[in-house]
Amino acid sequence: MPGVGFMADDWGFITAEGTLLSYAKPMFIKPHHRPIYPELFQGVRKPLAPGWLTSTVSSLATAVHPVIVRYPRTAAFTRRWSPEHRMVHPADVFGAEKIAAKAPTRLAVFLERFDGAEARLERRTQAWMAERIVGNFHSELPLVSRRLIEALGATGLVPLGGHFSAKTSLITRALGDVPCFVLRLPAAWSADRTSDHVAGTVTSMADGRP
Question: What integer pLDDT is reported at residue 49 of this predicted model?
Answer without folding.
Answer: 58
